[in-house]
């Protein structure tokens, strides 16, 4: 058993999950695209029927393409996690590079390399934005925690200055017996 800390589901299941998600997204996106394309190319009074027929004929192919990309990417990502024993953004960048190359290998080595660079670049951009957003969110959370700590320390100082126990909660017996306090009534 490895000591890799996953931020997603574990690897064998991740591949099948990404296959399904890729197929679903491809079919949904393909349905939107192919409906408008089929409706545009249909004669008058046949627009909706033409759009639906084009969805039925073409959307599963786009779903299959997305599923192939998702499955290949997840397989490469899991392979990188297994090789490096780390789950970090570099794995996704390398997996995008390899996936782009593998899926374009039939069109020749130079075209496969171009697609590999494009796939790796896109995944590096996505991972870079993710890392930056995560750092900004963590900094905002840290600032909020510091503000809350200062407020709580000030409240405790005021309670001590008034010779009150800072941990004591003010309790009104009438409000407790009557149910919800007046401030919570609708």
What this model shows, in words?
One of its GO terms (molecular function) is protein transmembrane transporter activity. The protein is elongated. It has a domain of 117 residues. The chain is mainly alpha-helical. Helices cover 76% and strands 0% of the residues. The protein contains five helices and no strands.
What's the helix and strand layout?
Blueprint: H1 11-40, H2 47-84, H3 89-103, H4 109-161, H5 173-178
Helix pairs in contact: 1-2, 2-3, 3-4
Brief summary:
This protein has five helices and no strands. With 186 residues, it is an all-alpha fold. The relative contact order is 0.08.
End-to-end Cα distance: 55 Å
- General shape: elongated
**What can be said about the biggest beta sheet?**
none
What is the number of E strands? 0
Q: How large is the share of residues in beta strands?
A: under 5%
Spell the H/E element sequence.
HHHHH
- In DSSP terms (H or I, runs of 4 or more residues), the helix count works out at 5
Please estimate the helix content: over 70%
Subcellular location: Mitochondrion inner membrane
Main location: mitochondrion
Transmembrane segments: 20-40, 61-83, 117-137
Membrane topology: Multi-pass membrane protein
């Amino acid at each position: 058993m490895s000591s890799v800390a996953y931020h997603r589901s574990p690897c064998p299941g991740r591949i099948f999950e990404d296959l399904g998600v890729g197929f679903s997204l491809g079919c949904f996106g393909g349905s939107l695209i192919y409906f408008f394309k089929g409706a545009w190319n249909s004669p008058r009074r046949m627009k909706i029927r033409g759009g639906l027929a084009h969805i039925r004929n073409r959307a599963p192919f786009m779903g299959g393409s997305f599923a192939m990309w998702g499955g290949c990417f997840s397989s490469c990502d899991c392979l990188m996690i297994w090789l490096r024993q780390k789950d970090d953004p570099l794995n996704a960048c390398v997996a995008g590079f390899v996936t782009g190359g593998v899926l374009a290998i039939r069109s020749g080595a130079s075209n496969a390399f171009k697609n590999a660079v494009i796939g790796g670049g896109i995944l590096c951009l996505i991972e870079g934005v993710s890392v930056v957003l995560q750092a900004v969110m963590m900094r905002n959370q840290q600032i909020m925690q510091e503000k809350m700590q200062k407020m709580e320390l000030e409240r405790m100082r005021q309670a001590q200055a008034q010779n009150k126990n800072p941990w004591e909660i003010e309790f009104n017996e009438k409000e407790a017996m009557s149910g919800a306090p007046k401030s919570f009534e609708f």
